[in-house]
Amino acid sequence: MFPLTDEPEAVYAKGRVVWVADLGGKVVAGPLTIDRSRPYHREWLVGFEGYHDRTAVDGWHDLFLVAAADTLSPPGEDEVYLHELAGFSVENGAGEPLGVVTAVEELPTGLMLEVQGPKREFLLPYRKEFVTRVERAARRLVVEVPDGLIE
Question: Do residues 19 and 53 both lie within one domain?
Answer without folding.
Answer: yes
